């Protein structure tokens, strides 16, 4: 079994080429599909020149909607989702593909080490971690990691993905509620980090809001389920 890699990207010129070439250098990956979310830079061209199949959104759709647009039309036995700015660190996706391709996990998530520089104050990860624990009973080390591998069956259980930055948190909750075998794999991956500047705080503010929305929606659904069963 081999995987199809889907790489949602926004303004990743300068790193996307190395990300794609690193992925295509792995025998366990048969195809790389890059989604250019209306970047307006050289992301699409660099990805294509590196050997990826490129899909360009006519307007910015956000991560979750971009992935949904593409994955529904793909034929795959295993799906790999990674960020476009990993560059040479994309080679490490072998560590999350191995348990999935080997039948030892339904969904494998790359766990990152400590950030190389100070970003926010941990509010986004804290919200995601507490929300997943509350709704599923599972403590996650890297609750918002975008580097994920899954079987076809796992994909069908969690798709369509939530839109925006809530995609990963919603996926994790849905997978755990479905009884899937979800594992986290420690890696030394790193990619671009936001700092403690205006752009960084705006970015994390969007993340916090969108993660809160998906958690609230799943909390409501959980309440309805228990009400209907009388538990």
Low-confidence stretches: none
CATH topology: Spore Coat Polysaccharide Biosynthesis Protein SpsA, Chain A
Q: What class do helices, strands and sheet pairing give?
A: alpha/beta
Please bin the fraction of helical residues.
40-55%
Strand order across the largest sheet:
3-2-1-4-6-5-7
Oligomer: single chain
- Measured distance between first and last alpha carbons: 41 Å
Please state the CA-atom Rg, rounded to the nearest Å: 17 Å
CATH architecture: Alpha-Beta Complex
- The gross shape turns out to be globular
Q: Order of SSEs, N→C?
A: EHEHEHEHEHEHHEH
| H/I helix tally | 8
Strand content: 15-25%
How many DSSP E strands? 7
What's the CATH superfamily, by name? Spore Coat Polysaccharide Biosynthesis Protein SpsA, Chain A
Instruction: Please give the largest β-sheet.
Output: 7 strands, mixed
Describe the structure.
By secondary structure, the protein is α/β, with parallel strands linked by helices. It has a single domain (3-229), classed as Spore Coat Polysaccharide Biosynthesis Protein SpsA, Chain A (Alpha-Beta Complex), CATH 3.90.550.10. The chain is built from eight helices and seven strands, in the order βαβαβαβαβαβααβα. A seven-stranded mixed beta sheet has the order 3-2-1-4-6-5-7, sandwiched between helices.
